[in-house]
From TrEMBL:
The chain holds residues 201 to 519 of 519 of the full protein. This is GMP synthase [glutamine-hydrolyzing]. Signal peptide: none annotated. The gene is guaA. It catalyses: XMP + L-glutamine + ATP + H2O = GMP + L-glutamate + AMP + diphosphate + 2 H(+). Homodimer.
Length: 319
């Protein structure tokens, strides 16, 4: 793509001009935006960039390893893997209020990020994968009245607190343009096409009390559901798909024994921007096969339901 190729060259030139010979820190979430920003900045300034990946232990199966392998081994980008799962899960254990979950995660995220960023000598810049819609949204929020349904955890205010200047090379781009830029930078297609994933991760897909046991079960069930969706060639038609583990155990029968295990809900929606969404009309064969696989392959779940609520009135996530 000629346009993106020249956009990339221009962006690299601007980053070099802004940063000079100073050090830059980039918070990597594993999502498309921060990843594209990191790879672009690395092309511009090489090892003057260090990425900090805060692993809160609320990621999907194998996700942390995949991110670390891709950035360290494939791209040779200096990366600090802040494995702080015990800190986050410890603080969340027994918490069931969705807003308390989000605020706890947001607060710890900032603490942890600062702690690791302080280890990088002479850093003067903080890189963020802010997109154009984020810029617009933060402006309109300061205007008229707005209703906050869910307080998205973000790291607003962090640069000022740390005395860092911002590098935001994606500020003029929309999501589809970021994807095109990612392709231009050689990021794998499977990575670029990934569904969005919320900052608080699996914490908000585990309604009710968070426990390590439930998180482990959830990760396995989610991996089976996504595998089914990929195998049936449906992944790219769906905006977001995931499993939520419900805070209830129900009775079942397996072989000649009685089971008393968790119920889960499958969620899959189509959407353009996440503001409104329709549930995905899977065929019954797909749903039946997926339920059988989850119950057979995931110890701890004995009942599978499908969430057919659209947004509004539902939200995409369960919390
Ligand atoms: P809802 O559940 O509000 O989700 O319909 C709309 C989109 O936002 C994502 N989401 C979040 N993302 N922090 C995030 O970074 C959050 O706290 C959060 N809550 C929801 C959700 O995954 C969907 O893409």
């Amino acid at each position: 793509d000629w346009t993106m190729a020249s956009y990339k060259d221009e962006a690299i030139r601007k980053i070099r001009e802004q940063v000079g010979d100073k050090q830059v820190i980039c918070g990597l979430s594993g999502g498309v935006d921060s990843s594209v920003a990191a790879v672009l900045i690395h092309e511009a300034i090489g090892d003057q960039l260090t990425c900090v990946f805060v692993d809160h232990g609320l990621l999907r199966l194998n996700e942390a390893e995949e991110v670390v392998t891709m950035f360290r081994d494939t791209y040779n980008i200096p990366l600090i893997h802040a494995d702080e799962a015990d800190l986050f899960i410890g603080a969340l254990e027994g918490v069931s209020d969705p807003e308390v979950k989000r605020k706890t995660i947001g607060r710890l995220f900032i603490d942890v990020f600062q702690k690791y960023a302080n280890q990088i000598d002479g850093a003067e810049f903080l890189a963020q994968g802010t997109l154009y819609p984020d810029v617009i949204e933060s402006v309109s929020f300061s205007g008229g009245p707005s209703v906050t349904i869910k307080s998205h955890h973000n790291v607003g205010g962090l640069p000022e607190k740390m005395g860092l200047k911002l590098v935001e090379p994606l500020r003029e781009l929309f999501k589809d343009e970021v994807r095109a830029l990612g392709r231009e930078l050689g990021l794998p297609e499977k990575f670029i096409g990934r569904h969005p994933f919320p900052g608080p991760g699996l914490a908000i897909r585990c309604p009710g009390e968070i426990t390590r046991e439930k998180l482990d079960i959830l990760r396995k069930a989610d991996a089976v559901f996504i595998d089914q969706i990929r195998k049936h060639g449906l992944y790219d038609e769906i905006w977001q798909a995931f499993v939520a583990i419900l805070p209830v155990r129900t009775v079942g029968v397996m072989g000649d024994g009685r089971t008393y295990d968790y119920a889960c809900a499958l969620r899959a929606v189509t959407s353009v921007d996440g503001m409104t969404a329709d549930y995905y009309p899977f065929g019954h064969d797909f749903l039946g096969e997926t339920a059988t696989r989850i119950i057979n392959e995931v110890k701890g779940i004995n009942r599978v339901t499908y969430d057919i609520t659209s947004k509004p009135p539902g939200t995409i996530e369960w919390e």
